[in-house]
Amino acid sequence: MRLVALVFVLPLAGMAQGEAVYKALCSNCHGISGEGARGPALAVAKLRRAPDDRVLGMIIRSGIPNSEMPPTRISDRDLAALVEHLRVLRRRPQTAKGDAARGARIYEQQKCAQCHMISGAGGRMGPELTLIGQIRGEAYLRRALTDPQAEVPDNFAQYRMIIPVPDNYLRVRAATSRGESYEGVRLNEDPFTIQMRTLDGRLVSLDKASLTRLEKDSKSLMPAYPLPAAELDDLTAYLQSLGGAR
Ligand code: HEC
Ligand code: HEC
Question: Between the N and C ends of the chain, which has fewer C-beta atoms within 10 Å?
């Protein structure tokens, strides 16, 4: 369910209406100066999805289906002021510090593809990253690398123990009475069986009666990557480049 609230924003003294609307409705996800966070940077020379103000207005009013970008009910006047403020933000584009080509090599060296898929290549233990640059801002990505646990609450952690949906990345370890052990992510579960994808990518279905151990763990499977700052810059620049050029 999407939350749609009609909001009236009163600007504080000295703050323009467009800025006030932006800070109230958008800055949580797009950063206070449009630098990006859970949502992509808006302080960029060119928006990927909004070639002109008309499309931009439609995106703001309707949101982007199947994404975390919500629809917003907003008056024509506030919308015009907001669009103008977004234009001001675009005049001060934020440029990535790192080098995307070097970042791509780090992605390979660190074997991120073990768990992540980019354009059809890679593993499925973590979310697909093909469009990640379109979806997330730099600071968020950097934190996803240095502190993967930080966003776990938003990755269904509170539901992980209860919802057997695929892609909830719940980590599972199991051992059978025949001495086999398995580690991976749960895909599905019922009272008698559990299906998982093992770390080496096999799909297994285990009969619970045959298990001597079944542990589920709501911590992220993703290891932390405390890389040197310059390498983090390069790797985030690479991730930012995924999802289409600006
Ligand atoms: C709950 C978080 C959230 C909020 C609040 C939010 N957005 Fe977004 N927004 C996103 C995400 C995530 C995307 C990327 C969606 C995708 O491409 O899959 C996005 C995408 C966009 C895009 C497309 C970017 C591009 O490069 O073309 C624009 C424009 C945008 N948002 C503007 C806004 C504005 C203006 C507001 C305030 C009225 C707002 N958003 C509020 C999360 C949010
Ligand atoms: C052992 C598996 C594994 C490896 C290796 C791994 N990740 Fe992840 N990653 C995950 C999982 C699982 C998540 C889902 C969120 C969570 O559980 O924290 C995730 C989340 C992410 C996210 C956040 C995605 C989002 O939309 O919020 C990014 C970005 C990311 N990983 C990048 C990388 C990069 C870059 C590397 C290599 C340096 C890497 N990961 C290595 C498993 C892995």
Answer: N
1 pLDDT tier (thresholds 50, 70, 90) = very low
Tally of CB atoms within 10 A around 179 = 7
- For the stretch 56-109, pLDDT in tens is 999 999 999 888 899 999 999 999 999 999 999 998 877 778 999 999 999 999
**Nearest-CA neighbor of 107 among 93, 90, 121?**
121
Report yes or no: 46 and 89 within 8 Å, Cβ to Cβ.
no
Q: How far is CA 166 from the centre of its chain?
A: 17
Cα separation, 212 vs 181, whole angstroms: 10
Pocket test for ligand 2, best of 108, 111, 115 (most atoms within 8 A of CB): 115
> Of 126, 121, 114, 138, which is closest to residue 234 (Cα–Cα)?
138
Atom of ligand 2 at shortest range from CA of 199: 1
Q: Is 61 in the pocket of ligand 1 (CB under 6 A)?
A: no
* pLDDT reported for residue 27: 94
Q: Is the predicted pLDDT of residue 223 greater than 80, yes or no?
A: yes
* 114-121 LR contacts (CB < 8 Å, sep 24+): 115/221, 115/222, 118/242
Average pLDDT, rounded, for the chain? 86
